[in-house]
Amino acid sequence: MDRISAVVITKNEARNIERCLRSLAGVVDEVVVVDDLSTDDTAAIAERLGARVIRQPWLGFGPQKNLGNAAASHRYVLSLDADEALDDTLRDAIRAARDGGLAGVYAVSRLNSYNGRFIRHGLEYPDRKVRLFPRDAATWDASPVHEGLVLPDGLPVARLPGHLLHYTYLRLEDTVVKANRYSTLAARELFERGRRVSLAKIAFAPLFTFFRAYVLRRGFLDGIHGLALACLHANSTLLKYAKLRELQREAAAPR
Question: Key word RNA-binding present in the record (predicted)?
Fold first, then answer.
């Protein structure tokens, strides 16, 4: 039977970390929490629940996770964020895969919560992520936002049933603040990669984002929540490209 280390990165996650770690009980053999010097009770709660806590000032999403992977004791790593938790079906699926012998990597479907409701359409679902992998064969990239897992070619990917429950978007204000922060990071990344944006793209890309989320991906089936999220996605697209345009103007300005 293979053994699994869970790696969780945190920063002031006292309201979430207990739910996350309790969902891992009986599924993994070790929990490593990489904590960005939280000022709340995150680290104390994690230690009380048996996690090994590494206090590490923020390096970035990917580097922070890679540090946790390097500190893990076991060959396979299950990567979670503090506001995520395994549902019962996914817990059983991971245990069955572990008991049968792990091979390759495993993808899960993430079920995102918005304002108290889990969203099953739009751009939020099925939101598949590879989260269970051999730590010597996978590395998180250094993207400042939406970090990705770099995997070798030819590694088999199996899909596990169940859901990774993502308790995000608690309030509209939280969503707007997060969209503003992430759009800044995304614009900076695009600019550094040499991407440029036209006024036409700034005008039409948000409209297409809304259409894709609400119509093509059937966000309308989630009612008012689906409408709100489609609007928020469109706004995030607008912010990202408008900020990229601003960076272009600043770079072109005479010095």
Answer: no
Cβ contact 52:30 at 8 Å: yes
Domain boundaries, the chain: 4-166, 172-252
**3-state SS class at 233:** helix
Per-residue model confidence as pLDDT tens digits over 45-94: 999 999 999 999 999 999 999 999 999 999 999 999 999 999 999 999 99
DSSP 2: -
Strand 84-86, strand 30-35: pairing: unpaired
| 58: Cβ contacts below 8 Å, ≥ 6 apart | 11, 36, 64
CATH 1.20.120.450 fits 4-166, yes or no: no
Q: For tokens 């991906």, name the residue.
A: 217
- The DSSP bridge partners found for residue 32 are 7, 52
Q: Give the helix/strand (H/E) hosting 157.
A: strand 157-166
Q: Is 181 exposed, middle or buried (0-12, 13-18, 19+ CB in 10 A)?
A: exposed
CA distance 108 to 224: 27
Is this prediction's pTM over 0.85?
Answer: yes
The secondary structure of 186-223 as a DSSP string is HHHHHHHTT----HHHHHHHHHHHHHIIIIIT-GGGGH
Q: What are phi and psi of 200, to 5 degrees?
A: -65, -40
163/219 Cα distance (integer angstroms): 19
Answer yes or no: are the C-beta atoms of 226 and 214 closer than 8 Å. yes
3-state SS assignment for residue 28: coil
